[in-house]
Amino acid sequence: MGNVIRRGCIYTKYGAISKYGEKIEIPKNCIAIPGFIDIHTHGGYNIDTMDGSLDGIKKWSYEILKEGTTSFYPTTVTERTDNIIKALRNIEEYIKKNNTIGAEVLGVHLEGPFLNEKFNGAQDIKYLKNPSIEQFKNFEENSDDIKIVTYAIENDKDLRFTKYLKQKGIISSIGHSNANFKEIEEALSIRDLNITHFYNACSGYHHRTPGIVNAGLYFDNIMIELIADGIHVDRSVIRETVKLKGVNKIILITDSMRAKGLDDGVYKLGPLDVIKKGNSARLKNGNLGGSILSMNEAFKNIIEYTNCSLEEAVLMTSTNASIRMKINNKKGSLDLGKDADIVILDENLNVLKTYCKGILCYEK
């Protein structure tokens, strides 16, 4: 069927795309694309994963429909263990009891506490720990929904933690890390990897001491997250990255925090104060503290910055994430049998309507 439909209609039946059934019309000069999938988002609209609130997650799942997001992975931050467990339990309960109308929560992205203090970014340094199977089992006892873990792989001695995550079917993502090229190459001999918010909070590109950026651009079995807001990564570097890495190996994320959709002011990201001013969110020391980016903005930006096609933008905002997260049997395309998670965009690529499993959940 294709992932960008420019005219006609799409049929849905029992929540899936079908050859016949309920009709979703595509208005003139509009397009239909698969719903966006955000695998790294801390919050927005005055909601944060770490709030541990069922009502908060429910409100969040409705608010992001206006962005065209139909699936997401609430993301934690480094905090006290009991606060992380509270957030994990809350998401698990939501998935079991409330995951109905609205954007679908597909699991948890655990960012921290297994990070390197040199690149702590907007993570509270006093709660950082080395990767620990024992500590992680404590998290697992309170959640069956951890799907991806960001950690500093250089602190994973003998790669025991990496091997454990592979055994459990959980994605390893390098982030807030000072890993070098050889350490990443060794880990890749065990399993494929992700890199969390590529370029940000990690060892960079260097011609004598190659780091995470070198490895991310070089290895085909690394998938990279990219924040396409023009703030976390300059738009010229985004253009270069798409050219070097290719559209099949990039997943656009928001890394958004509570202040998204709100007025300028001071807001919490976990335990830390973040100042939202204009289009950026920063700690008092100037470090970036997540973003206020929406997925539809990321979609428009990647087209503007790189001159990629609509189809290529869909790969980076939906399809690649579905493949990496092993949900492409249901999400990430407009193929027959897939969930009818559909976004209708106008001629300026603004979101007009968002359907979740064939149900109209948002209309501008």
Summarize the structure.
With about 375 residues, the chain is of the alpha/beta class.
- Given the structure, what is the number of helices? 9
* CATH architecture name of the largest domain: Alpha-Beta Barrel
Strand order of the largest sheet: 10-11-12-13-14-15
Task: Estimate the strand proportion.
Answer: 15-25%
Distance between the termini: 26 Å
Within CATH, the superfamily of the largest domain carries the name Metal-dependent hydrolases
Assigned CATH class of the largest domain: Alpha Beta
Q: Strand count, sense and closure of the main sheet?
A: 6 strands, parallel
Looking at CATH, which topology of the largest domain would you report?
A: TIM Barrel
Report the average pLDDT across residues. 96
Q: How would you describe this structure to a colleague?
A:
With 364 residues, this protein is an alpha/beta fold. The protein has a six-stranded parallel sheet with strand order 10-11-12-13-14-15. The protein has a four-stranded antiparallel sheet with strand order 4-19-20-21, with helices on one face. The protein has two domains: 1-33 and 335-364, Urease, subunit C, domain 1, CATH 2.30.40.10; 36-331, Metal-dependent hydrolases (TIM Barrel, Alpha-Beta Barrel), CATH 3.20.20. The radius of gyration is 19 Å and the shape is globular. It has helices at 54-63, 81-97, 133-140, 160-168, 181-188, 212-218, 235-245, 295-306, 310-324, and strands at 9-13, 16-18, 22-25, 31-34, 36-41, 43-44, 47-48, 69-74, 104-105, 108-111, 146-151, 171-174, 193-195, 222-227, 250-253, 265-269, 272-277, 280-282, 342-345, 351-356, 359-363. It is built from nine helices and 21 strands.
